[in-house]
């Protein structure tokens, strides 16, 4: 159940993400847009961390963090800014995410193989070929 709930949350959130990115006023300062975005995310994250972990454990939970959480913040900042600027310069909502996600998938394949021990099967090779064809057709 959680398996499908997690990916459903990702899909629904991704749809909302791209629609709201496209609806941000073109003259709005992109860095203030990101500030409001991250203040909202920080508030929700803090609230839910207190609700699900309890106030007593809150400080202890910080000791479990490593550099990856902060690197993720930098990556998310770049992702947000990249899509905001892409939509402003004319990328269409119907192709920007598709193009980006297909390209990211192609780059993640060797990373998964080299660093995480994932296997490359014939089906995955066919998927890579289809992604490359798709990128060529979109480009």
Q: How many helical elements?
A: 6
Give me the strand/helix succession: HHHHHH
SS strand fraction: under 5%
- The rounded Rg comes to 18 Å
**Fraction of residues in helix:** over 70%
Number of domains: 2
Regions with little confidence, pLDDT below 50 for 5+ residues: none
Shape: globular
Total number of beta strands = 0
Main sheet record: none
Distance between termini? Answer: 38 Å
Q: Could you report the average pLDDT, rounded to the nearest whole number?
A: 90
Overall structural class, as computed from helix and strand content, comes to mainly alpha
Describe this structure in words.
This protein folds into two domains: 1-92, no CATH class; 94-139, no CATH class. The chain is mainly alpha-helical and 139 residues long. It starts with a helix and ends with a helix. It has helices spanning 2-23, 30-53, 58-62, 67-88, 96-116, 122-138.
Element layout with pairings:
Blueprint: H1 2-23, H2 30-53, H3 58-62, H4 67-88, H5 96-116, H6 122-138
Would you kindly provide a brief summary of this structure?
Helices cover 80% and strands 0% of the residues. The protein has 139 residues and is mainly α.
Features:
mainly alpha; 2 domains
